[in-house]
């Protein structure tokens, strides 16, 4: 059994009641095991569904419509695909200081040492 993440872009939601109505309707769709809503008041909210297999898009759209809202986009991924996308985005934003060689060493020091101008090893910074 694999896990599937389905993300719906939903317009028209403005409050907790909207979130509750959408969640309640989606929980009636066969196969939905979890519903998470990221509310963007008056904008496009993101509704993420967890299931053990891909869900029928028509049933999801029908549930959202029944709650009184509109689906403007649907994205279906496995957790591995989602993680890979997040990792790619992180690398794009932050890059890697070592050209992709792996994590760099980080040394911690006390605030007092920093105020004295000393690094973790006691040398001047």
Q: Structural class of the helices, strands and pairings?
A: alpha+beta
**Which residues form runs of ≥5 with pLDDT under 50?**
none
The helix/strand order is EHEEHEHH
**Outline type:** elongated
Strand order of the largest sheet: 2-3-1-4
Distance between the termini: 54 Å
How many DSSP-defined strands?
Answer: 4
Number of contiguous helices: 4
The percent range for strand residues is: 15-25%
Average pLDDT = 85
Largest sheet: 4 strands, antiparallel
Integer-rounded radius of gyration: 22 Å
Helix content: 25-40%
Offer a concise description of the structure.
With 125 residues, the chain is of the alpha+beta class. It contains four helices and four strands; from the N terminus they run E-H-E-E-H-E-H-H.
Descriptive notes:
This protein has 125 residues and is α+β, with helices and mostly antiparallel strands. The chain is 34% helix and 25% strand. It has 4 helices and 4 strands, in the order E-H-E-E-H-E-H-H. It has helices at residues 16-26, 57-67, 79-94, 111-115; strands at residues 4-11, 32-38, 44-51, 70-77. The chain has a 4-stranded antiparallel sheet with strand order 2-3-1-4. The protein is elongated, with a radius of gyration of 22 Å. The N and C termini lie far apart (54 Å). The model has no long low-confidence stretch (mean pLDDT 85).
